Request: fold
Amino acid sequence: MSSIEPLHRSPPQSSRPPPALAVEGLCKTYASGLEALAGVSLEVEEGEFFALLGPNGAGKSTLIGIVCGLVEKSAGAIRVFGVDAAASPRAVRAMLGVVPQEVNFNVWESPLDIVVNQAGYYGIERPTALARAERYLGQLGLWDRRHSRARDLSGGMKRRLMIARALVHEPRLLILDEPTAGVDIELRRSTWRFLTEINASGTTIILTTHYLEEAESLCESIAIIDHGRIVEDSDMKSLLNKLHVETFVLDLATPLGSPPDISGYAVRRIDATTLEVDVERDQGVNRLFESLGRLGVSVLSMRNKTNRLEELFVRLVGEGRAQQGGRDAGPR
Amino acid sequence: MPALARPELVALRTIVRKEIRRFLRIWVQTLLPPAITMTLYLVIFGRLIGSRIGEMGGHDYIDYIAPGVIMMAVITNSYSNVVSSFYGARFQRYVEEMLVSPTPIGVVLLGYVAGGVTRGLLVGLLVTLVAMVFADLRVESPLYTVAVVVLTSTLFSTAGFINALFARTFDDVSIVPTFVLTPLTYLGGVFFSVELLAEPWQSLARANPVLYMVNGFRHGMLGVSDIGPGVALALTGGAAVALLVLALLLLHRGVGIRS
Reply:
């Protein structure tokens, strides 16, 4: 493990700014003996929109909990914009905004009080806090409900309230743990637009999500965590390039009795007007359509069978589990 | 504790304000019951039974018990305010709002204790106003009286905070007030002078810390006490400081707040 740079250090010689988040060899074993993180290392560059994916229990929330100071690490180091979290936890917390997975505000208070109080914990004077609360509650469509009791808000409103609360001190790094879970599609898309604007204004965002479409459309970089280990850490484009075979669904104009025989492609008939075709990445689809045209098959539309990232995610996590199983089954 | 910088003062003010608004919002649960309970004590024990008892410590019985009744209200309300509020924050996890912020953990403690002291003093004031209807109340040593009541309230607010750190269920929040605090308060010389007790009960009663606070307060108001006023003040202040240090140590070790 490399040594931690001293705090308040002089500006680095290189022009490259320090990463927004640098995690090195992070381990966490709970008192129960559960090993939640087993040496996680990753870097998130300043300004990135970063996705952290993983199945339930993979260690995502533990990792976020350690970064924001709610969980004690067992080993490892964390730096936020170059500041060591162990040596200067308060300076690090001042730069972070956190939206947790579960509702964690006082449900008897009003959204306005919740957001203004949060600003107070960051040392922001009340007049400034009120102005910012108006801005963020307004942007997230909650200003009209500012005096309601928080328990009376809908699930989607509660999630947006937590986003407004996390932004009131204008953090440099915003961490969102499943921010759109259980939110309807329209609200989810408006939240995406809002987060994209926040990111465009310079805030680095780390997002955990179960909606892989969300990660693929919003994030430039991605890490996949499973069993407390990072199993993939790259930019989205490189990751998607690893997908060698994609499955497409073709909707046909006229019914077919049997699947057409096209050399080099695995074609399956799902029903009379639907085909499924496996296409290898270097094959392309031109020859497929030429062959279908020659056979007189008219295609109305084509779509991916599953989200591309989802296919990769399932494969990577599956491979990781197979390796884990192999290790576990080895000689003792 | 080092002097607080401006952002820390803003954070402290935020927590205290939030705590005061919390107990004022639910005043029917927090302010009214002690006023009614203590009125009943004064009417039943002080007026009805007290008229047959006569004098105690050179004062009418109702005048003698009034300071103890006020102190009992201060003690129970300081404790219950902090234990229920901070455990509620842990239970609903909104304590995380403060833990993820740069607010020093000592400021969080100070804010909750200040909230508990404010409720304790406000309830004490209400009960005093009620007691003035029934008893001939006066304050012999105002500064001493204020010092004892503030330190006692600080001590029990901090004790409530420590209870909240260890509590895992709402049962744990009520166990200490029911099985420890109430017996100690009732046996702490609120309704009687320990001089009336035979040995070994009198020595045993002197091991009860609440006795020192009740008698310190009684000394401040009436000028009579079973305990030396200096001893009462030093013990109350010392215990308050010791518990504050203990609470701070527990917080720095992450007890009850970090996994």
Observations:
- Chain A touches chain B at residues 30, 65, 68-72, 90-91, 93-94, 96, 98, 100, 102, 104-108, 113-114, 117-118, 120-125, 165, 169 (CB under 8 Å).
- Residues 243-308 of chain A form a domain with the Alpha-Beta Plaits fold (CATH 3.30.70.1560).
- Residues 308-328 of chain A form the longest helix (21 residues).
